[in-house]
TrEMBL record:
Keywords: Oxidoreductase
Similarity annotation: Belongs to the short-chain dehydrogenases/reductases (SDR) family.
Pfam annotation, one family: adh_short_C2
Protein name: 3-oxoacyl-ACP reductase FabG
Lineage of producing organism: Bacteria, Bacillati, Actinomycetota, Actinomycetes, Kitasatosporales
Organism of origin: Streptomyces flavofungini
Gene: fabG
Length: 234
């Protein structure tokens, strides 16, 4: 059955790979973007998730085109890496506003329709960094770790309405964010991964697609690492 899907931050990387995976399954997919131009073959909606009015407008456009959103995937996120002693308050709070509060805005808006339908799938994209920590990424790690508590609270809050909430925690993945690393940084990080390579966006997308599928109907409140083993034990 074709579903209405909205993916925040879906114009590239993991978000776009997820859009492709769900389109291949027959779903009607809309993605939001802020700056990166999305491909022409997906319904792309400009939206800054730090603005509640823009989030509401994005949902309305997706719903007008595809019907009530039954699957929400929250991929929108930013990083502003810096050592704590050099990190400004804006560098800390802006990352949390996008990665955590932006997710809150999208989930709150999606839950209205899902409650009426008495069904829904929500998948939040966290990070292995949110589970194991990383020097120079205290803001990013805090925002991604918080998604776990948020998702599990929502799983308890809305589980009786057949709405599931799950978290995917990717490790270092071959996206534009990884492209910003120097060769030395990349080698150091890959050495910490038991599989000794970066993940591919399609590998993360496959896990998200499973969690959004009918086969995962009895999975909620889970955190699934897709990180090549980098976060084992966390």
């Amino acid at each position: 059955m074709s579903r209405s899907v909205l993916i925040t931050g879906g114009s590239r990387g993991i978000g776009l790979a997820t859009a492709r995976a769900l389109q291949a399954l027959g779903d009607r997919v809309a993605v939001t973007y802020r700056t990166a131009e999305p491909p022409a073959d997906v319904l792309a909606i400009r939206c800054d998730v730090t603005d509640a009015a823009q989030v509401d407008a994005a949902f309305k456009e997706a719903e007008d085109a595809h019907g009530p959103v039954g699957v929400l995937v929250c991929c929108a996120g930013i990083a502003k890496d810096q050592l704590l002693m050099r990190m400004s308050e804006d560098e800390f709070t802006s990352v949390l506003d996008t990665n955590l509060t932006g997710t809150f805005r999208a989930v709150k808006r999606a839950s209205k329709g899902m409650l009426r339908a008495r069904t829904g799938r929500v998948v939040l994209v966290s990070s292995a960094v949110g589970l194991r920590g990383e020097a120079g990424q205290s803001n990013y790690a805090a925002s991604k770790a918080a998604l776990v508590g948020f998702s599990r609270s929502m799983a308890r809050e809305l589980g009786s309405r057949n709405i599931t909430f799950n978290v995917v925690a990717p490790g270092l993945t071959d996206t534009q964010m990884a492209d910003k690393l120097t060769e030395a940084q990349r080698e150091r990080l890959v050495d910490q991964i038991p599989l000794r390579r970066l993940g591919r966006p399609e590998e993360i997308a496959a896990t998200i697609a499973f969690l959004a599928s009918p086969q995962a109907a009895y999975i909620t409140g889970a955190v699934i690492p897709v990180d090549g083993g980098a976060g084992m034990g966390h």
